[in-house]
Design goal:
The protein is an alpha/beta fold and 169 residues long. Helix content is 40%, strand content 24%. Strands 1, 2, 3, 4, 5 and 6 form a six-stranded mixed sheet that branches. α1 packs across α6 and α3 crosses α4.
């Protein structure tokens, strides 16, 4: 199986590799068609769908995968939440899966609400670089108990499920 992943972020490629260890994985740079910091479920899902379609269109892969992280303001429980979505397409059908979601702490949420992008906000607050290409916010806020690659893999597995099942459902 040959899979094009719509991102050159190594964490996103690792997430797909963990779900499909025997597949050929090709990370490709594509445009998500959404803001750098997607806001809301609709925009985050659209970014994943756009990345999957664009990745598939770059060559002769069997599947295109798009992964997008975003933030969603929720009333119950209240706060700004990190969300992650994956889309998988074979060109005829597209399926979706989501990863875990977690509430962002107040000072980080406030900066993102004011227009900041989560990755750079975390880099600044932690005094580090490229947290999004390492453990990500999910790794930071679970004290390493879940990494970004593991969280994204859950979304990818959910999206790939309909293509991998052989039960006719």
């Amino acid at each position: 199986m040959y899979v094009a992943v719509g991102s050159t972020n190594p964490v996103k490629a690792a997430a797909v590799e963990s779900v499909l260890p025997d597949a050929r994985i090709d990370p490709v740079a594509v445009d998500s068609g959404v803001a750098e910091q997607p806001r809301g479920r609709e925009e985050t899902v659209a970014g994943a769908r756009n990345r999957a379609a664009a990745a598939l269109a770059t060559g002769d892969a069997d599947f295109g995968v798009g992964i997008e992280g975003g933030v969603v303001e929720r009333e119950t429980p209240p706060g700004l939440w990190l969300v992650m979505w994956a889309a998988v397409t074979d060109g005829a059908e597209t399926a979706f899966g989501s990863g875990p979601s977690l509430r962002l702490p107040g000072p980080v949420a406030d900066r993102v609400r004011d227009g900041g992008e989560l990755g750079p906000v975390l880099d600044d607050r932690l005094g580090r670089e490229a947290v999004s290409e390492q453990e990500g916010a999910v790794g930071v806020y679970t004290a390493g108990r879940t990494t970004r690659a593991e969280a994204l893999a859950a979304a990818v597995a959910g999206a790939f499920g309909p293509f991998l099942r052989d039960d006719g459902q």
